Amino acid sequence: MPYTSTAAVRGYDVADDSKPYECETCGKSYTKRDRLKKHIEVKHTTNIQLFICNECSKEYCSDDDLQRHLLIHTVRYKCPYCGKRHDRRDRYERHVQKCIQNAGLLPA
Ligand SMILES: [Zn+2]
Ligand SMILES: [Zn+2]
Ligand SMILES: [Zn+2]
Fold first, then answer.
1. Could you tell me the superkingdom of the organism this chain comes from (predicted)?
2. 106 CA distance to ligand 3 middle (Å)
3. Which residue range(s) make up the domain with 68?
4. What is the pLDDT of residues 51-92, one digit of tens each?
5. Residues 43, 71: one domain?
6. Is 54 part of any domain?
7. 56 located within any domain
8. Which ligand is nearest to the CA of 99?
9. This prediction's pTM
10. Which residue from 36, 56, 61, 84 has the highest number of Cβ atoms inside 10 Å of its Cβ?
């Protein structure tokens, strides 16, 4: 196809419909989502959206990484004996002590 620049396709109604994936950063549009994704990776790598943990303000480049990290916070205060969760460390530790006594278990 002879379309070498966006200026060349201006005036054609098809232009918008045929390139539905538009880069939010620079406005360049692409026919395929993959192409746009690649463009963002290559051209705007310094503008990666950061995913920030509410608990400790750690920054992650992807939501996947953040979700994996969040497990640290939820699992940290989970009682290994009864599975009860606590959002505060002091309460959690008191609870675990009680759980150990109740179950007649000794800490490892
Ligand atoms: Zn762009
Ligand atoms: Zn965190
Ligand atoms: Zn417990």
1. Eukaryota
2. 13
3. 63-103
4. 998 888 898 888 899 888 887 776 668 888 898 888 788 888
5. no
6. no
7. no
8. 3
9. 0.31
10. 36
